[in-house]
Design a protein that fits this description.
One of its GO terms (biological process) is alkanesulfonate catabolic process. This protein has 199 residues and is an alpha/beta fold. The chain has helices spanning 33-47, 62-67, 73-84, 101-109, 134-145, 174-198; strands at 2-4, 11-12, 20-25, 51-56, 87-95, 98-99, 120-126, 155-158, 162-164, 170-172. The protein has a single domain (2-193), classed as Rossmann fold, CATH 3.40.50.360. The longest helix has 25 residues, at 174-198.
């Protein structure tokens, strides 16, 4: 296992002209495995020269989020960030065979085709390998319905394959480090292709 010190930053920068990638963390916990894994992946994306921004659904005003109030300034700023982003990393814990209610509420507030033309990298964490299929059979159809036409093969991270230190650094088992690194490679390659198309 290799230790990797990462945090889930509010904003990390690459070069000035780099497109922005938005990471959405759907965990309700302030400190969570989901946030740590999302931070690891976000750091790897930033290392490829992309601007990265992270939004934690738990930090959004709950009443406005549950009401789907896109006119609320904080919710509106998240909607604008999604529209501006070249691609998204979407991370969620899996509870009882479903992705998080917080993530669902955030996706519900977005415009119908908000994900069109944006590469999407789904990530999920959980304590049972029985949850692996949630990415393909629960989350993916929702993303497709929102216009996502380039969804990178998602990665399910079993909690036993990651150790989170008190300082936020994580230690990854090689069995999951490899799949995460490959997912980042495919995702950033897709971002480059989309960027070339829109140039």
């Amino acid at each position: 296992m290799r230790r990797t010190d990462v945090a889930a930053p509010a904003l990390q920068s690459g070069h000035a002209a780099a497109p922005e990638v938005l990471t959405i963390v759907g965990s309700p916990s302030r400190t969570s495995l989901t946030a740590s894994v999302a931070g690891y992946v976000t750091g790897r994306v930033a290392g490829q020269g992309f601007h990265t921004r992270t939004t934690a659904a738990r930090e959004l005003p709950p009443a406005a989020l549950l009401a789907g109030d896109a006119a609320h300034p904080v919710i509106g700023s998240v909607v604008a960030a999604v529209e501006r982003a070249a691609g998204l990393v979407i991370a969620t814990p899996i509870y009882q065979g479903a992705y998080s209610g917080l993530l669902k509420s955030l996706l519900d507030v977005l415009p119908r085709h908000a994900l069109q033309g944006k590469p999407i990298l789904p990530l999920a964490t959980g304590g049972s390998m029985a949850h692996v299929l949630v990415l393909d059979y629960a989350l993916r159809p929702v993303l497709v319905a929102m216009g996502a036409d380039h969804i990178v093969r998602g990665v399910f991270v079993h909690q036993r394959l990651v150790t989170v230190g008190r300082d936020g650094g994580i230690t990854l088992d090689p069995d999951i480090e490899g799949p995460l690194e490959r997912a980042v490679e495919v995702f950033t390659a897709a971002l480059d292709v989309e960027g070339a198309r829109s140039a």
